[in-house]
Structure to design on (106 residues):
């Protein structure tokens, strides 16, 4: 799992990985199924899934001769916590700035 969301953000920076991640929102899928919906090869999808898995955003399990990939709630929660923290900091900084400009004489 990434510290401060950096691994998750880096993994999602690639458009193909984002497309795979978004496709998994509909439920678990095999590599072949994902590749059929994307303009990249099955080996490329597998490599992208490896990066997403290492970042803690997806998990896999064997089902017969296939591996099904699904979103990993714990990794998504860590990413969300990181983004929520960034948003809170930005709002706090904005509020402090707004308050400081109100106090200045016109």
């Amino acid at each position: 799992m990434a510290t401060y969301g950096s691994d998750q953000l880096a993994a999602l920076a690639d458009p193909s990985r984002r497309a795979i991640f978004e496709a998994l929102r509909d439920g678990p899928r095999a590599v072949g199924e994902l590749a059929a919906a994307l303009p990249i090869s099955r080996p490329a999808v597998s490599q992208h899934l490896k990066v997403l898995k290492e970042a803690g955003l997806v998990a896999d399990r064997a089902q017969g001769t296939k591996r099904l990939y699904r979103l990993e709630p714990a990794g998504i929660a860590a990413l969300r916590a990181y983004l929520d923290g960034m948003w809170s900091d930005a709002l706090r900084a904005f509020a402090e700035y707004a308050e400081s400009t109100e106090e200045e004489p016109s």
Remarks:
- The first strand starts at residue 29 and ends at 30.
- The mean pLDDT is 89.
- The chain is about 60% helix and 15% strand.
- Residues 8 and 33 are 23 Å apart (CA to CA).
